[in-house]
């Protein structure tokens, strides 16, 4: 995973598999060069790349329910690029 590059982690939550616990772990405990910033009482955490205002994690705990309450694989292959970056930025990047 290259946090400084164009890599993006998209978390697909499958119900009743421990996904809520794992999703919280991703934003609160993962040790990266620039981990997510979580504030007390805040539902979402900020997961920006070092020196940028661009997110590296696409999950309910970082971007909210951007693609719907329980987005499936199909929704998560089409929706994140339009939510995470500008249209111009998405066109310039290779497929993820």
From TrEMBL:
EC number: 2.8.2.-
Entry GO CC: membrane
Cellular compartment(s): Membrane
Pfam families, per database record: Sulfotransfer_2
Membrane-spanning residues: none
Cross-referenced InterPro entries: Heparan_SO4-6-sulfoTrfase, P-loop_NTPase, Sulfotransferase
Topology with respect to the bilayer: Single-pass type II membrane protein
Signal peptide span: none
GO molecular function: heparan sulfate 6-sulfotransferase activity
Record keywords: Glycoprotein, Membrane, Signal-anchor, Transferase, Transmembrane, Transmembrane helix
Gene3D superfamilies linked: P-loop containing nucleotide triphosphate hydrolases
Catalyzed reaction equations: alpha-D-glucosaminyl-[heparan sulfate](n) + 3'-phosphoadenylyl sulfate = 6-sulfo-alpha-D-glucosaminyl-[heparan sulfate](n) + adenosine 3',5'-bisphosphate + H(+)
UniProt keyword annotation of Protein biosynthesis present: no
Function: 6-O-sulfation enzyme which catalyzes the transfer of sulfate from 3'-phosphoadenosine 5'-phosphosulfate (PAPS) to position 6 of the N-sulfoglucosamine residue (GlcNS) of heparan sulfate.
Family named by the database record: Belongs to the sulfotransferase 6 family.
Descriptive protein name: Heparan-sulfate 6-O-sulfotransferase
Upper lineage: Eukaryota, Metazoa, Chordata, Craniata, Vertebrata
């Amino acid at each position: 995973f290259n946090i400084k590059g164009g890599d993006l982690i998209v978390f697909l939550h499958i119900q009743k598999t421990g996904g809520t616990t794992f999703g919280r772990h991703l934003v609160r405990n993962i040790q990266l060069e620039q981990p997510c910033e979580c504030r007390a009482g805040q539902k979402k955490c900020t997961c920006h790349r070092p020196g940028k205002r661009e997110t590296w994690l696409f999950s309910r705990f970082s971007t909210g329910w951007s693609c719907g309450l329980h987005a499936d694989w199909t929704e998560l292959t089409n929706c994140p690029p339009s939510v995470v970056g500008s249209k111009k930025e998405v066109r310039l990047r290779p497929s993820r």
